[in-house]
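Annotated sample (chain length 128).
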Amino acid sequence: MSWDWSMPTVISPATLSFSGSVPRNVQCSACGVPPRLGANLIAVTLLLSDLLAAGSRLSSLGVVTRDFSGKITTEPSVIGWMPSAQIYFSDPDGHTVEYITLLDEAPECEFVGSLSAWKARQKMVQPR
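Output written by the structure step:
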């Protein structure tokens, strides 16, 4: 995958290009902590359907994708306090790229895990 940082367009959900310098001191706005998976983070919001396809698509291009904990996987992970589903990978310059989707479900602050575990948990707590 090639990256062109000089073009100010989003080419597709699996390829990002933008203009300007990449921020060097990205921190979480909620807690001030730098991202765990890299010193620089670029977050891109996707539709859930695009996020679900992104892991396999990136893998087919030779891009290694990871979950929130850093484990290699093509399945998105979920951070329950938001809640959001996301997958991470590195661009050729070493920046962490996060594809993220906010989930339209009630938050669960303690949950961090795979999207499939999140869905299974949701099924277990639904009233019959």
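Annotation: Residues 1-35 have pLDDT under 50 and may be disordered.
Annotation: Residues 3 and 93 are 9 Å apart (CA to CA).
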